[in-house]
Design a protein that fits this description.
Radius of gyration: 14 Å
Strand content: 5-15%
Distance between the termini: 8 Å
Number of strands: 5
Number of domains: 1
């Protein structure tokens, strides 16, 4: 099933870090795959959820290179966008992350990202980390598989 076909049944999607970076930086290998997702967001046909982890990871390279313009693009997309919910991490999310990490042997970062997606009732989790496909609590969409 293609990415666009998978998106038809999704109303709210969690955006892992890589797809956001691919879109903002116009990654030559993945931009065409992620662009329809962000167009749907702009057209009010899809809602997205991100976590503080997504924002922090996206800002590392712009901060390292002192590229405040790109840093602002990430912030505008993830925090100042009416179709993107910036979901906080609280103790309930931390407990869910610990449970996911224990059961699936995930990284702490991946566990928190998935916990936020599940806690915020996302229909799917968009990533490029195929390791996350073993998680069964939420539909995992891996860009490199599409």
């Amino acid at each position: 099933m293609s990415l666009s076909e998978q998106l038809e049944s999704i109303q709210q999607i969690f955006l892992d870090t890589a797809p956001v970076i691919y879109f903002v930086e116009k990654n030559p290998d993945f931009f065409e795959k992620v662009q329809p997702i962000f167009l749907k967001l702009d057209e009010d046909r899809l809602n997205a959820v991100v976590s503080p982890i997504t924002l922090a990871e996206c800002l590392v390279l712009p901060y390292k290179s002192s590229n405040l313009e790109v840093a602002q693009l990430f912030s505008d997309l993830l925090v100042n966008n009416e179709n993107v919910l910036f979901y906080p991490i609280d103790e309930i999310t931390a407990e869910k992350a610990a449970d996911l990490r224990a059961r699936y042997n995930l990284t702490l970062t991946g566990s928190f990202q998935l916990a936020v997606a599940i806690q915020s009732n996302c229909d799917a989790f968009l990533t490029n980390d195929s390791e996350l496909k073993k998680v069964t609590e939420i539909k995992i969409i891996v860009l490199s598989d599409n």
